[in-house]
Write a structure and sequence with these properties.
The chain is an alpha+beta fold. Helix content is about 25%, strand content about 25%.
Length: about 600
Amino acid sequence: MSKPQIRSSQLITTFGPGAMVDLPDDAVIIAGTDFWRYSNLSPLPSISEARLQRKLETITGIPSVSLRKPPPAIEDKGFTPDIAAFRFPQWFIVQRPRVTPRGYVARRLVHQNDLDKGRFRDEDGKRHPVVPVRFVRACNRGHLGDIDWYAFVHGTDKGCRRELFMEERGTSGDLDAVWVRCACGADRVMSQAARLELRALGSCNGSRPWLGPGTREACGQPNKLLIRSASNAYFPQLLSVISIPDSFEALDRIVSALWDTLLSPIQTEEQLEFALKMPAVRQQLEEFTPTEIMAAIKRFRNKAAAEDRPVKETEFAALTQAKEELGADVPEGDFYARALPRDLWASKWTNSIERVVLVHRLREVVALVGFTRFEASGTDIQGELDIAVERAPLGLNATWVPAIENRGEGVFLQFKSEAIEAWLARPEVKERDAILQAGFRQWLKEHEGSKRAYPGLPFIMLHSLAHLLLTAISLECGYPASSIRERIYAMPGEYGILIYTGSSDAEGTLGGLVDEGRRIKQHLRVALDMGRLCSNDPVCAFHKPGPYDPQPLLGSACHGCILISETSCEQRNDFLDRALVVSTVDANGAEFFKE
């Protein structure tokens, strides 16, 4: 198998090992991390993020896993690309159309071994250009391979090896109009390959072409038809954390130092009160309340230290429990945030908001853990990846995972838990919740084996508000909407939204987002006004998930109102309903923000 080379890119969110890429004259699959080359003349471009590394060790099972940036191009002796790729697929269509006696357009289907310097020499003696065939086979475990075209067209492998042709028996381009024909007269329509119950493509042999030759593993699942350029051909599994100082870190460190000598016997608040009378204890813990100290003692005793908490729980705690200023405002700093004084954002539209924090400096580290095909398997609402999900590996002997770090800024809004709980208690809200849960159950029926969970109404409401707010801010902040992202915090008693931006260079920290954060009450008003009316109303406003609904995870939501770029949304534009935020023309009474 030959190894064409492609230029390195740090956009691991776009492609990685196992992704199929079209080149001007070929098609390739990005090779596994075992084939990534790093210059021996410079240190490895590693990234340090302890909290993310601990999460990855649990998910991947790799001890002491390290984070490594994609290799930069080596230019010691001219431009030398550094990320290898294998040619895939190995079947091609000859660009010499023929008209059959029945008036169909047919093109020869040939294997890579039949090519002469990248072209096919036909019976006319001329060398004709070829293009990679767009159909391949894959299974739910991420395995991938060429279709056995002889077995497909004949129904089984009968030993016939005569010429194969792909015919267009129509002008629509649909699978029903594409046929594969053998010179012996056998033919078969491609739409049968898409019908899983026919098992027209046979069983998977476990091939993993991105890991190199001879890397098959036992499988046996039914093969599915996959179009190389389709959006379901590759779903990267990404895990990201924001490098926020842990609000529990200092306290946990002190408790650990005092544990063996003074704190290990403490079981009750009375015992803690007695211990705090000792100068050695009081001097080190005087900045913390007895409740905080008792919680730290319980964490240490249960070995549930702060690093084991969910990703978003740590971030939310730091943004809400820290003092008015968090981090250090220094050049190249990882994090710096300041709380915005209430008198700058208080209004009748912000009565449900507890706190607004302007994040002047922010560092996000994103790691590529694996990938899936056909069905995306991203993080849950806590920012965690499901350990039980079977993901395709990035390499055979992996001791590291690819990662990138983005620098940016953002605005954080903390919501009052009592306001959200009072909203959840309203009958109209419960009725809307039942409708959305029915849509989710319908989605589960259509996605058997999915371990996705219903996120709950607070998440859907905050998620919908984040989309509206993101769109409103993008009109003024100077960043395009596709470069702004969201993080939704919806845990029991803890609710918030972080709107942020980030890039691998300084363009993510230009200050536009923080500056607009000072005008958050105006942007919130604009966002609510945008949510009330959609260009697709009344169809959008009255939409309710139901059987055979193409959008069972959406309430009142469409591309005319709150759907945004999927690069900005942490749930790929699922779980949205603007009727939970503001009153629409449907006027169902479930809105969080009353007139």
